[in-house]
Every structure is written in C-alpha cells, then in structure tokens.
Specification:
Layout: E1 8-11, H1 16-29, E2 34-37, H2 41-50, E3 62-65, E4 68-72, H3 73-86, H4 109-121, E5 123-127
Length: 131
C-alpha cells in the first residue's frame, strides 16, 4: 500500500494534450500537488487503493482531495478552488512527466478540441475508500 500525499491529480499520461495540462497545473501549483499518470505503476496503485473495485476511471482526469475523487468537470472546478483558496504548503514528491507514446490524435486541432470538451462534458464524484 502506497503512502498517499493529498491532493492528487491523475491524468492520461499517454496523451500529449493531457500531459501539457498536467505540466501547466504543476507550474501553477509549484509542485504542491502529487501529479501522476493513469498508466504509471504509481497511478495504477493509487487508483487500486482509492477507487471502487473494478473501476479504473480512464475516461477522465481526476483530482483527489478531502476524501473525494472529482472527475472531469467536477475535478476541474475543485482544482481551480484549490488553486485559489485551499493551497497548502507541504512536502510533495517531484512530479515527473514522460510522454513516450501518444496513442491518440491529441496533437491535432480536432484532438485538442475533443480532449478539452471532454473535461467540460464529463462529471463524476465519489468518496474514496481508504483500504
């Protein structure tokens, strides 16, 4: 079981647009958030530890804070609230961003538009389980 540091942002690390989004968030927060990819070993372990059984949450990015996982639009709103009002100083591991392969057409205008609109149209929120 991984010792977790909150807040946590989980993003699609196989997507160029999503990786750029995560890097921008990291720059704004000045590394005051654990940012991890869906497909990384740490990302898989965190999701296994916190998400409901047999749910991977790959369809959107997630912002996890205060015992809740906020996905899509809910995650974006909660992330903005955190940036503006709730930011906490603390010890966070240095975030690493490696994009080895882009499995979608996310560098095209159409791909960027589809990825950006999916953050707005998707919404999910649930309490995370502390296993």
């Amino acid at each position: 079981m991984v010792e977790l540091v909150y807040p946590i942002l989980i993003y699609d690390n196989l997507c160029y647009s999503c990786t750029r989004y995560a890097k921008i968030v990291n720059d704004i927060l000045r590394n005051q958030c654990l940012i991890v990819g869906h497909y990384t070993p740490l990302g898989k372990e965190i999701k296994n530890q916190l998400f409901p059984k047999d749910y991977e949450g790959l369809e959107m990015s997630w912002f996890i804070i205060d015992a809740y996982a906020h996905g899509g639009r809910a995650g974006l709103f909660r992330l903005i609230k955190y940036m503006l009002f709730d930011r906490k100083k603390g010890e966070y591991p240095k975030n690493e961003f490696t994009l080895t392969e882009c499995t979608t057409d996310c560098k095209t205008v159409k791909g960027v538009f589809l990825r950006s609109s999916s953050i707005i149209t998707m919404y999910k929120k649930f309490g995370v389980s502390q296993k």
